[in-house]
Amino acid sequence: MAPEGNEEDCYCDADDDDYESYYGTEEDSESEYGGSGGGGVSDDDGDQQAMETNDDEDKERGEGYDFETEDDVRRCQDEVTARMSELLSVPRGFAAAFLRHCRWDAEQLQNEWFSDEWRIRGAVGLAPGRGAVPTALNDRPLDCGICFDRSAPGEMRSAGCPHYYCHGCWRGYIAAAVGDGPRCLLLRCPDPRCPAPVVRELVDAVAAGADRARYAVFVVRSYVEEGTSKYVRWCPGPGCALAVRSRPGSRPYEVSCRCGHVFCFRCGEDAHRPASCDTARAWAAKCRADGETTSWVLANTKHCPRCRRAIEKNQGCNHMTCGAPCLHEFCWLCLGDWDKHAGNNYHCNRYAADRAEFTGEKAQRRQGRASLVRFLHYYERWTAHAASLAKARQDLDGLRCGGGLDGFAAAVGVPPTELDFLAEAYAQVIEGRRVLRWTYAHVYHLDPARDNVEFCEYLQGEAERSLEQLHDCAELERNKLRENVAVYAVAYPAGYAAGKFAEFREKLSNLNLVTRNHFSKLVEGFESGMAEVVS
Ligand SMILES: [Zn+2]
Ligand SMILES: [Zn+2]
Ligand SMILES: [Zn+2]
Ligand SMILES: [Zn+2]
Ligand SMILES: [Zn+2]
Ligand SMILES: [Zn+2]
Q: What range(s) does the RING-type domain occupy (predicted)?
């Protein structure tokens, strides 16, 4: 559903260095908004907005968008089509063809039309002398140009040109075109020498009901997918039919759709903040190119760095604990001691040429594969954060919809309504994992000679360290708390569970605050300091 073809010109026209063009946002007060108010409903669901930390930022680049259904989009399109039809004194079907030729930009159409009407008429197949009507009936008996059957007056049609066909042949001709996809919008008269366009009026007059409906869908989709409008695009989420329209003057670049899909408003790909669209694209290309050779890092099994026992990861956070009697606590990603991940000396995120003896990086480097090894460092973290994100989302779903919150509330003896802080922490974990993930794509593309890699890694490390603690607390400590309460509540006085729960709540809430703070600094730092890292 993502408009692959024209996204270059359409959405990614960033070329200077300021923040605006980092995401390629642009403000344009003209046209599109005209009479839109097409029933867009604002989305008040705040879950995904955990990142938004201050009002200023909200105003600057907060939500700033509304959702529209296909009907809303159609109304908007119908309105501009009707307006142009009247202004240019042409039938609506032709107005739509002209508009489509100008990528649904009414202003451009007016300019082109009034500077050279015949050029644009010619471009859609309306030669001089043609194009008075979108379709005509025969006024005398004629032979159909396709099946050669003779039909009485009024039983054949043309696309406004002199080539008449019977209704049955038209129906088949249009059905085949519609079955072929959106190119049916470019359909011409069946006579191979005739460029007369087949437009809406003709389709509506002769096509079967199902084909008319499909044609109508292609028309409305074209408005969004082929339009120059930077203000509206379809949600690319699987099965989602919503469009997203940015509000006048706002600059959305990351959209949380109601279907749950989070995507970049500019390029339509999965959300990749704080990496720019170009960086995300370059990274995706790199992953495609080197995906085969790197797939081994996706293995879910590693070995405990102390006892070499195979450890499988089935949790979200990276704090691993080996089984008894080893009980060694280590980091899944760098295999370093977990202790080193809490203090001030957090280095897990940094690519160090002399590290990671356990991952075999040294040996590989000796074989002259330094660039691959470097890529692997970032690639593994990029994929690991995605896996952790998926696990966190699964946990959050289980808490919300799978009765998890109620169960936990009952276990610790509080009403479920007092557990909002837990869902909030998870929302932050999810958002944070997504952001961190893309910081690795970003840092990978940095140029040490030009960019402040050190500073980026510092921000990234701080954010990651706090996120790991937050995730650890929300996931592992919550489970531990629940177990402990079950085990000890009988033996201890009544206040045991309440006390432990209060401790847990305070710790998690504090970690959430700290993490939020780190991430707003991280995003701000990444987005302001470096405009574009891929050239
Ligand atoms: Zn026929
Ligand atoms: Zn013709
Ligand atoms: Zn959606
Ligand atoms: Zn993008
Ligand atoms: Zn071990
Ligand atoms: Zn680590």
A: 140-352
Q: Which of 76, 166, 317, 473 is catalytic?
A: 317
List, edge to edge, every strand of the sheet that includes 243-246. 65-68, 243-246, 232-234
Q: How far is the CA of 459 from the centre of ligand 6 (A)?
A: 16
Render pLDDT for 216-264 as a digit per residue (tens, 0 to 9): 999 998 998 887 766 788 898 988 989 998 887 777 788 999 998 999 9
Structural domains in the chain plus CATH codes: 71-225 (3.30.40.10), 277-302+363-526 (1.20.120)
- How many CB atoms within 10 Å of residue 455? 13
Integer Cα distance of 165 and 162 in angstroms: 10
Nearest CA among 522, 23, 520, 61 for reference residue 269: 23
From CA 235, how far away is CA 66, in angstroms rounded? Answer: 12
Q: Is 326 a catalytic residue?
A: no
pLDDT digits (tens, 9 = 90+) for 70-86: 899 999 999 999 999 99
Residues in the chain: 535
Q: What's this model's pTM, rounded to 2 decimal places?
A: 0.68
Can you point out the beta strands (E) in 124-242? 136-137, 142-143, 150-151, 156-158, 165-166, 232-234
Q: How far is the CA of 2 from the centre of ligand 1 (A)?
A: 38
Joined tokens for residue 217: 């869908």
Residue 197 has what DSSP assignment?
Answer: B
* C-alpha span between 12 and 26 (Å, rounded): 10
Lowest-confidence pick of 260-274, 276-290, 305-319: 305-319
User: Packing angle between helix 277-294 and helix 370-400, nearest 10 degrees?
Assistant: 100
Task: Report how far ligand 4's centroid is from the alpha carbon of 275 (Å).
Answer: 8
Q: Which pLDDT value is given to residue 46?
A: 38
Which phi and psi angles does 41 have, rounded to 5°? -115, 135
